[in-house]
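Quick check before the chapter quiz. The format below is the same one you will see on the exam, so make sure you can read both the input and the output lines.
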Amino acid sequence: MKTRPTGIFSRIGIFVFLVITALGILFVVVTYNATSDYFQASTQLLNKDVASNIARLSEPFSKEGIDHKKADSVFNNTMIISPNTEVYFLDTLGNVKYYYAPDSLIKQRKVPVAQIETYLSDHIHLIKNTDPRDPGNPKIFSAAAVRFKDQKIGYIYVILAGMEYRSVAEFVFKSQVGGWATKVFFIIILTTVVFSLLYTTRLQKRFNHVIYVLDQFKEGNLNVRFKIEQKDEFFPIADAFNKMVAMLDENFTRLKLLESERKNFLANISHDLRTPLAVARGYTETLLIETTVSRKEQESHLEMILNKVMQVEKLVLQLFELSKMESVNFTPNKEPFVFSEVLQEIIKGADFQARKKNIIISCINCEDSSLIEADISMMERVVQNLLENAVKYTSENGNIRIALSREPGKLILLLENSGKLIAGELLDWINNSSADAAVRRPKQAGLGLALVKRILYLHGFSFVADATDNNYNRFIISINSYKKPIQKVL
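Here is the expected output.
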């Protein structure tokens, strides 16, 4: 199979890789921050009483001020017990008044009191405040108001994640959490790359197959089809394409068949036209060559020529009508009328020719007053063509029987004639109700019968033929009765 390079799947692979990489980095960052916040919040909550215990138990404050000896002992002991803490005494404005650390380590000597008051009112949520030794990085803290004689004189302010804690935490994170996070991140990226490559390669193979099938179709191969299972990503496209190609193949096959049948149709028409023209030409040449022809013979020859010319004219008219009715936009001009009136008029017209062959035409229930909705002129042509054919092919002293009967919602026209039975091929053609049956006319069928089939098809009326046991040809037309529209009562 010929493949072609396509950049779409490479771009998809790169896009997926970048998206997964970005999501992986985002996941690591969010996980680290969430873990850090969780740990700090739990640490702050667990140590919420540290500052209050210092303020309550140590009492390093008096009316003279801070007892530095006691304060140094308390603050030092606290920081020894919990090395991650830094203890400060703040006045009511947040100024650092006392701490246990070299003076050079203090970078900011004022702490915002608002955060401390928020902490004292609600210990549940994570709250950070300024670290005097590292003011650029807010820390979790514990705080308690210091009172002397029921008067607030300041705050014990304890940083719970001091410089030493931060250094140790960063070292542990880099050596443990950071290492594992980096390994997991690269495993995710590697797995993503592998699966993306496998999936895009699979998609590209399917895509190349689609391109190959489309190229075959473009080159005129209507037998090409997609062989893709329903679970495949390209199945909706492939299924729609297969159905479209199948429909096109069927239409092309049908067009070829119709073209072949039209050629046969034209050949039959040529034969139908050639025969009367040849007869008329023969009689005309006789009149031109023979000088001894009597007046009576001349009149006979001229009458024959006129009959054949009229026959050709009729064939041409029928061919024109049939061609017009095969137009896509052609529709019958339907209107309600009593069908029996048309039938009786045509029977009277055919009776003259029937008497020449001593044929008896009988009509049963021909006074039926049923209304039908159809094109009057077209239905006249149907009855006329059928009756003319019946007279033509009924032997002398034969019979033609016509009958009208009713069925629910239908009027049935029956026409039977004695004589030679219809050939099986012609019966099959008559009973074929497809739209193009008139085109596929066998040699035994005349244009009149083809016209009958087309008219009845356009009206949606059933038309069948068979041979009876008593050697009669039988034609049956099922005509829909006229249904009066229901008028709404206002």
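If your answer matched, good. The radius of gyration is 54 Å.
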